[in-house]
Structures
1.
Amino acid sequence: MSARAKIFGSTDNGTSLWRAYRTVDGAWPNFQMTRIARPSDIYPVFRKLFARQPTLQYRS
């Protein structure tokens, strides 16, 4: 397995930031995180993250 595959192929590669995000992800139901393999993978993630959400209906 190449070094690149080892780094990007596992969520348990030992980085402190990734471990911290996993802690936040478990504590906050509205927190979203996605592992990407290549820089070009980030655009679909951002499109999904910032897509328009259905309008909330507020009770008066």
2.
Amino acid sequence: MGILITACSDDVQPVQGGSYIKFIGGARNETAAAIVPTADGGFVIAGGSSSVREGEDKDFFVAKVDAFGDGIWSQHLGGIGDDEALDVKENGDRIFVLGYTTGIEVDSTDFLLYELAPDGALSDSVVLGKPDRSEKGTSINFTPEGNLLLAGNILNEEDGFDMQLFRLNANKETERDVNVGYAFSTDTLRLIEQIEEDRFLWYGTLKPTNAELPSDIRVAITDAFGNTINDIFFGSENDFNEIAGGIVQAEDGKYVIAGTQEAAGSTDIYVAKATLSTMVTTPDWVRTIELPEIQRGANIASTNDGGYIIVGTTTVSNNNEDIILVKIDSEGNLQWTKNYGGLNRDIGRFVRQTPDGGYLILGDVFFGNNYVMGVIKTDSQGNIN
């Protein structure tokens, strides 16, 4: 049974037990992309906003909330063109927000990075890109030395996309400009991590430009110059579309991925566990979460019982989608699901387990006549008391 999200004039206040639903946004669309916990126990949320622009152009929207989802500050950032935040991270006392900015005279995009102080004040900004290509930043990470890793997607010569990495030094100057991709395909990056010294994990979706060929989830391990050490494709054994959602490292050092499988007559959440350090990889296990409705997996996190929690979107009817929370055990077996939504389209983006054993969910909630960011805190069974 789903939990109904209804409109109200005030934020829902947390009750004893710590569960709540909070809405963050203005008079027009605010859409969520990422959320990061902060050292003071709160969270910073980033995405796109149309509330301060005429037309459909967006700005970066960044908001700080406390542990109960109550707003502390918010910022609209951007230029004249269409700008949108796609990731946010905290490093020390700085907040870094990454996305893209759109050129005014040419229809192309560049990486756009903002650095903010703890109170949301703008400290610095960097634009990265070349005039003859389009780039969008989607993932921020840091080297052990604290240098920035900015990753995303660039338009290649075949009108597909490659995965792109900029490595910046302490002065935010580009040290490395690396891209990873296959000819006649679109490689769409979800995230990048530095897993060892000069070893990087790239995670995304590979879609051939030939529309008759299916897409696969791709995990590539490269050196610092983009040379491939290991390349693993999930779903290559079938003719279905597999689309990347999230990835998390398990306690045994292996990785668990979650996404979507589009098969003949069904669309389900796809989950697999595998070792990524060997050239020939056979997954430990592969699961599809087969429920009556259409489900898409967006993000995954580990849980304190050795299992995993997945958030995504489920289709309730032709014009109605809910956020779905899916709990699986350490072997990928389904334990329970919960839906959250109203009477329109609500989209699950992000999930993490909280110290009290509950779950924090970020999504887009259709509220009145527009989208707002929804922050949902549940108990350990996905309930909102």
